[in-house]
């Protein structure tokens, strides 16, 4: 599992960096969960929208979307 | 002190929203300053944006192939506030605004909850006043003061004034209590009429949030602060 700063990819604010390990691990899990949930939601939503694209545009739209 | 329905720590609530958890879940961050919470939230939203950039870029490219009316129709058929908010940030602002004005205030209120407070300003400034007011009203109905504050401090000057006039002083007080950025707070204040500023003071008394209200007013520059003074202190 990545550390909090590795997951964020930046130098954390001092007050966050100095939290106890258990708190930083908790934040890492929450952020990782949010990242995964958003990616899933965005992917599902995009696919459901593509299914509704009018037929004459569907091919071009799917190609542009990389699907 | 805060109102019963306004968050005690808006910066903590905004962070909790990004993580999709109740604010109480982050109680262990209570001692962290607002500035550090805001900086940390910005780091998280930037990381999320980086992780989603490739996929969203492709979806945005595909969206540009659709006429605005068709894109709006799709979003009405399969509404998803998160996707709409992310794509809006990537589209050309005029096009994003063209799509947005075709969507219901109820849906746009949901989209507003997903906007990154640090971005999307150009799109929001292009929204018609009546649409901003309608969305602001939905957010006020939900007592979602944070999203309301993030929205009405980033729209056009005339849209801010229209929303203030439409929603009244009590809602304006709820709004200013959770505005995050002092520049945005000053801009909002500058757009208030003297009468509305006085009405807001009375509303703050009625809401029993005078201490919080005074704390917010104290952040304003001198040129604005006097407008919120008690009547016997107010000199024109």
Structure description:
The complex is a heterodimer of chains A (67) and B (236). The two termini of chain A are 30 Å apart. Chain A has helices at 4-8, 14-17, 21-50, 55-64. With 67 residues, chain A is mainly alpha-helical. The mean pLDDT of chain A is 92. Chain A is rod-shaped. Chain A has four helices and no strands. The radius of gyration of chain B is 18 Å and the shape is globular. Chain B starts with 9 loop residues before the first helix and ends in an 11-residue tail after the last helix. In chain B, helix 2 crosses helix 4, helix 9 packs antiparallel against helix 10 and helix 10 runs parallel beside helix 12. With 236 residues, chain B is an all-alpha fold. The model of chain B has no long low-confidence stretch (mean pLDDT 91). The chains are: A mainly alpha (67), B mainly alpha (236). At the A-B interface, helix 2, helix 3 and helix 4 of A face helix 2, helix 3 and helix 4 of B.
């Amino acid at each position: 599992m990545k550390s909090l700063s590795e997951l964020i990819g930046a130098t954390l604010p001092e007050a966050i960096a100095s939290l106890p390990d258990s708190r930083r691990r908790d934040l890492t899990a929450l952020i990782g969960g949010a990242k995964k949930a958003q990616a899933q939601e965005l992917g599902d939503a995009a696919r459901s929208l593509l299914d509704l694209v009018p037929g004459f545009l569907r091919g071009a739209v799917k190609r542009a979307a990389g699907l | 002190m805060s109102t019963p329905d306004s968050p005690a720590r808006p910066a903590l609530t905004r962070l909790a929203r990004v993580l999709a958890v109740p604010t109480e879940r982050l109680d262990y961050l209570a001692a962290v300053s607002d500035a550090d919470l805001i900086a940390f939230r910005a780091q998280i939203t930037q990381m999320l944006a980086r992780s989603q950039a490739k996929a969203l870029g492709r979806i945005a490219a595909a969206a540009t192939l659709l006429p605005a009316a068709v894109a709006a129709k799709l979003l009405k058929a399969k509404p998803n506030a998160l996707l709409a908010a992310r794509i809006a940030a990537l589209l050309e602002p005029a096009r994003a605004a063209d799509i947005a004005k075709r969507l219901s205030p109820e849906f746009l209120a949901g989209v507003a909850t997903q906007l990154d407070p640090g971005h999307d300003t150009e799109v929001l400034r292009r929204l018609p006043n009546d649409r901003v007011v309608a969305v602001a009203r939905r957010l006020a109905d939900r007592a979602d003061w944070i999203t309301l504050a993030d929205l009405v401090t980033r729209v056009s000057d005339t849209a801010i004034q229209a929303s203030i006039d439409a929603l009244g002083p009590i809602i304006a007080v709820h709004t200013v209590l959770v505005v995050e950025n002092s520049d945005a707070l000053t801009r909002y204040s500058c757009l208030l009429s003297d009468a509305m500023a006085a009405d807001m003071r009375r509303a703050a008394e009625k809401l029993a949030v005078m201490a919080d209200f005074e704390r917010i007013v104290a952040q304003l520059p001198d040129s604005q602060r006097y407008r919120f003074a008690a009547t016997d202190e107010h000199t024109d």
